[in-house]
Amino acid sequence: MKKIILAADIGGTTCKLGIFDENLERLSKWSIDTDTSDSTGYQLLKNIHDSLVEHVEKSNYTMSDVLGVGIGVPGPVNFATGEVYGAVNLYWKEVVNVRNIYEQFVDCPVFVDNDANVAALGEKHKGAGQGADDVVAITLGTGLGGGIISNGEIVHGHNGSGAEIGHFRVDQDQRFKCNCGKSGCIETVASATGVVNLVNFYYPKLTFKSSILHLIKENKVTAKAVFDAAKAGDQFCIFITERVANYIAYLCSILSVTSNPKYIVLGGGMSTAGLILIENIKTEYRNITFSPAQEGTEIVQAELGNDAGITGAAGLIYTYILEKDGVK
Ligand SMILES: [Zn+2]
After folding, report:
1. Tally of structural domains, the chain
2. Has UniProt tagged this entry with the keyword ATP-binding (predicted)?
3. Are residues 296 and 313 in the same domain?
4. CATH of the domain at 269
């Protein structure tokens, strides 16, 4: 009888859960509401476990077939210890050791990592980064997150802050304050929030007549509206799109000379809303990046969408147990 991997991708409102086989093929997926009533994390993890057990028992497998449990958490994680340092969206103010809590429920290894890292691992194994050992994934959503896979493994750094690329300072004028407490982070100029920041900053300064003027005045600008207008030829929105693209291309360029990825995978809502954005990023990236570091590197769109998290959470077990043991 074959073995299975259990996966949980914890989000602020829902937890996506899944069962995978030894080849990281997904056998089933579903989701449960996120219980944020208990700031110790115990109740949420217990709910996840109960739901996983229920689904395993309904399948052709039993809990003794489980090779390991992989968990993605929206917050800073110490991969070595399984500690999560204050997951704001879950209202965990203190350190929660997710691995220690979860190991009370099961007899198998438990791996914990942050959601951006597991999403990158998911794309590496089953998405747009398949077949490569060096993959960078950048999530362009409300914020900007990322994960770096180097030589087949997630880059964590000495305290777990590796690949926190959203807080790379690109705006030397430091025009906008970031959630992290500093200013000028790329997240403040190249995320959905960043697009709005740039629109509000530049519009009073420029003389363009924009088709989205009514949205600007009503404070209803969205990144999608800006990219759609840019596609239709709106000069102001083209200007904004180029600014945003240049920041992201600069980030991709830095990532290329540091880790030389085969694939730079762009995901998140903004990547699907803005094909014009991705084309601009590619052009600028080719212009500014050291030639040997960009040779053979492809900038591609993410393929797994919302499933990247559970795939990558299961991927933790695949990568750090099956591949390490030489089984795969
Ligand atoms: Zn920041």
Report:
1. 2
2. yes
3. no
4. 3.30.420.40
